[in-house]
Structures are given as C-alpha cells and as structure tokens.
Amino acid sequence: MAALAKGARPYQIVVWGATGFTGKILCEQMAAVYPGTCRWAMAGRNKGKLESLRVELEKIDAMCKDVPLIVADAADQTSLDRMVEQTDVVVACAGPFFMYSEGVVDASVRLGTHYCDITGETPWVKGLIRKYHDTAKARGVKLVSFCGQDSIPSDLGTWFVVDHMKKSLQRKCDKVDGVCVKAKGGFSGGTISTAIKTTELMLAAGNMKESMDPYSLDPPDSRRGSDGADLLMPVFQKELGVWAGPFPMGAVNSRVVRRSNALLGHAYGDDFKYTEMWKQGNWLGAFMTTAVLVVSFLIIRFKFLQWLFGRYIPKPGQGPSVEDRKAGFWEYCMAGVTQEEPGVQPAVVKAKVADPHDPYTSTARMALESALCLALESENLKKAGAMQGGVLTPATAMGPVLIDRLRKVGFTFDIMEPEGNE
Predict the structure, then answer these.
(1) Crossing angle for the helix pair 47-58 and 21-33, to the nearest 10 degrees
(2) Residue limits of the Saccharopine dehydrogenase NADP binding domain (predicted)?
(3) Helices within 213-282 (DSSP H only)
C-alpha cells in the first residue's frame, strides 16, 4: 500500500483506542482545549462506542458532531493500514500495547506516519527498537512511546535540568534524582491488566533478566554507565534532605531517561546517573514503599492473589471517578548535581515539574500535546535539533518544543532558586 504524501492526508491526528479510559479523556481534552485546531479523527474497533463518544463530545463542543470515525481492529492489519495511511500522526491509547498496537507501529513505519503512545511496557518497546529503529530512522518516521505520566515528567524533567546546567553553568551533569514529592490519584483497570500481562509475557519468554538491566533500552552498541539495580530500599536524598523509597514506575522511567542520554551521544555527562524515588516523611515511611512495591508485584505475579484481591482491583475500562480525578495532582522535584571538575565544587540544580491534575488526566494531556507537537511543530522541532526518525523518547523527539507546549496548558517546568536566593 503506497504512502500518501504528508499534507495531502485527510487527518493530522488519529486517536487510536479513543473509547478506552485514557483515550476518552484525551478526546475530551481535544474538544475542550483545541476545537477546530487541526483535522482529527477517532478510531477503534467498535463503531457503536465511537458514535456514543462523539455524542458526548458534542456537549463539550458542537463542532465535534463532525469528527470522523474510523473502524480499525488490531486483529485486521488491512484496517490498521487504512487508518494509518490517512493521517500524519497516530496517538495510541489502546493497551496492553504488546497485544494491540504493534500492527499500528508496523503500518506507521511502512506508510510514513509518526506514532506516539502512552505505554510503560519496556519489554515491548525493546522489541520495537530491534525491529523498527533503523528503518524508521532511515525513513524519517518518529516512533515515540512513553508519552504519558510514564515517562514525560522524568524524561523531560531530566532534560530540562541538564539543559540548564549546560546553558547557565556551562557544566555537565553527574546525576539526577527524580523525586515524586506529592501525588494523588488512583489506578485504572487497564494499567493493572497491562502490568499483569506484561509480567506474564516476560516470565514466559524468559527475558525477565534482560528487562531488569538498567540499560535495557539503550542502543545495543552503546557504552554503559555505572547505574546499578533499581532502587528497592529506603535512601536519604541529601540534596533535598528527605527520606525516600522506591517509586513504583521507576524501573520504567529510569530506562527511558537513560535511552535519551544514549541517543544524544551521552551528552548529559561522562558517567551520567539517574535514580527515581518517592519522598516520605521518615525512614519507616520510605520502608513502607518497599513493602507496598513487593506486595504489588506478588499480586501481579500470582493468579491466586489476583483472585483473592479481585474485588478491590478495577476492571479494564474502569478507573478513578471524575470526582477523584478532579482532586488529583502530582509534583516531581528533579535534583541534579553537576559533574566534578578540578578546583570547582559541584553545583546542585533543582527543578519543579508538576501538573494540578491527576496522573490519568495528565497522561491524556501529555499524549495530546505530544501528538499535536509531532503534527504541527515540525519546523520548530527541526530548529530545536530534535531527532527526526527512529524509536525515540519524548526528550529526543520533542524536547524543548514539547516543554513549551506543556507549559502553555498549565504544566510546570521551573528551575528552583537555591536556598537564600529566593
């Protein structure tokens, strides 16, 4: 099937998996924030659900009555090709992604369409890198996973700190600790289902050891740094002066940050290190995060525990209520330390990265801005030096252009002044 020339396609963005929990929020954001901004369509396998969603969107913006609908089924590659060839960008919200979205990625590479998604499935993305990175790079196709809560705050937050060190201090970076200092929000059934199925896949394929490699997403020929195993026990984060424990998604976000550094030629620092953690009030609180993490893994790992706790686990398609989401928020502090230099003391750079929305609403907002960035900001991305093709990260594909877009819709990316200079 021949690719259509960009600019000649009916749509600039297609939302794949529009009727899922996060996909629906993304479409609501499009209707509320960007009415008439671009040519877009909603796609999924159930036409009835798509029609019902369109009726709901009309209540937000009357123009949505004309939003086109595309029926595309992950089990029907021809339908995926027909969807992908009509748009400049596909934003995928249908997980588990290893089950539903690889056909969309494959079509995107063949048909010259940029792709972004909200996955946190590092083993699946590792497979995409092996299969598609070189071809996508050669064809100028951007495949950008991790465009939601995992891992934009970590990935762009780290890029932001390192960029400040380079431009304002003329220094390289030794390490960044991404510390979740505040958060409120629940879990969706889709997230839990994906975690269960991804773990089952890793165990069945025997690649758990590979997934535990802190540099598992780096290019195969890339040099390794000195980052070790993921944080599990409590630590005292000295730059912030707080106790912290492991962050549940740190194993995902840390690998994305390291891939960004590797793709950029290890420009962050000569031996750049990244750790992600969760601020707690004391050592005991930090230790409890370890306990929660272990229990969560056991539930994900063993079916009898899933059955035992089944009544407390939301089903796929279910998630936090509108009221709960309205009360949600999150805030990271990115604490960076400059690389040691002879006769010069290391400097500490702290940045606040935050959104006054719950993680699911934030994920939808970040994915939408990522799709709009890829669809509408091509010239600005080139000027900013963004990479133009391959299996990329948010930082390497969009970097400062995406940060600017996120700031304009209420996200915070601010350098925190040193104490005493405020």
Answers:
(1) 30
(2) 13-142
(3) 250-263
